[in-house]
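<goal> How does this chain fold?
<sample>
Here is the protein in question

***
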Amino acid sequence: MRFFGNVIWFLVGGWWLALMWLFFGLLAAITIVGLPLTRASYEMAKLSAFPFGKDVIHVREIDQKELSATTAMTGTIGFIVNVLWACTAGIMLFLGYLFAGVLACITIIGIPFGIQSFKIAGLSFWPVGRRVVSIELANEVRQRNAQKKLDEIRGTSIAA
């Protein structure tokens, strides 16, 4: 089902949405301030081209780095860049995905495509720091993080 959903999505307009993300990523790469957006734009282009079977998680969920001077600085820079993004290209992409989602949900067959549009619309505002991964990997990372927190609460640690 994922394969056919991705093929239909790509042919109906996913390629166009992915090109928009790539275009904004290229514009961001031209400026020094926009460099963090370049990686985020390419990640979102992957999701926009083939969204079925994919999920988005924050980079800190993957690497499990604790708060340090480096993570605080990169987090602050990411926040500032996300605010700039949300005020410029983010609003345009959000409205485009929202419109596509509403159009897709008009028919019963289009509801899964509308759900994907709404998922990506929310990510359009805040893309920096996100990574596109398979649903299975995202579930595994979240389960690992939940187990780690549970072990911390219990006062035990995972024996590796």
